[in-house]
Amino acid sequence: MKLSEWAQIAEIVGGAAIIASLVFVGIEVRENTFVVRAQSDRAIDQQNVALNIVVAENADFAEILVRGEADRGSLDPAELARFDNYCLARFGAYENVVGNFSEGFISSDEFEIWTRHFEDRFRRPGYRQCWINYREGFFPRFRAWADARYDID
Rounded CA gap, 153 and 144, in Å? Predict the structure, then answer.
C-alpha cells in the first residue's frame, strides 16, 4: 500500500473520530441539560416547601401572615419586619422561577402553575404594598414581569 493510500485512510479515520466526538458531546450536553432542569425544579420546590413550613410550624407567624396579607398597617414594627422578610423570600422564589423559565430550565406548563400561584398570593393587599416598597431590589426582568401582574407602571 502506498503512503498516499495510508494518508487517505488516516484522514477517513480522523473524520470518523471527529464525528463520534461531536455525537458524544451532543449526548453529554443533552444529559447535562436534563440534570440542570431537574436540579432547578427541585431547588424551586425546596424553597417553596421551606417557606410553607415556616407558616405551618409557627402559629404566631401564621397569624402575622394572615393579618399582614390583608393590611400591613395592622402589624407592629417587629411583625412588619417578619412579614416583609417573608414576602421578600417569596418574591425571591418567584424571581428564580421567572429566571429559570427564561433560561429554559422549567417548562411552560410548570411556569403557568407558578404564575397562577404568584398571582393568587400577590392579589392580597399586603403583598402588593410590600412589592411596591421593595421592588427596586429585584432584577429588571422580574420587576417587569411582576409589575405587569400588579398593573404597576
Answer: 9
Write out pLDDT tens, residues 44-78. 677 777 887 888 899 999 999 999 999 999 999 99
Phi, psi of 104 (to 5 degrees): 85, 15
Tell me how far apart the alpha carbons of residues 87 and 75 are, in angstroms, rounded to a whole number: 14
Among candidates 69, 145, 132, 38, which has minimal Cα distance to 102? 145
What is the pTM for the complete model shown? 0.74
CA distance 27 to 21: 10
* Other CB atoms within 10 A of residue 51 CB: 15
> At residue 68, what is the residue type?
G
Helices (H) and strands (E) in the chain, counts: 6, 0
Please name the amino acid found at residue 107. Answer: S
Compute and round to an integer the Cα radius of gyration of the chain: 25
What is the Cα–Cα distance from 125 to 67, expressed in whole angstroms? 10
Instruction: With beta carbons less than 8 A apart as the criterion, state whether 83 and 130 touch.
Output: yes
Residues near 28 by beta carbon (within 8 Å), at least 6 away in sequence: none
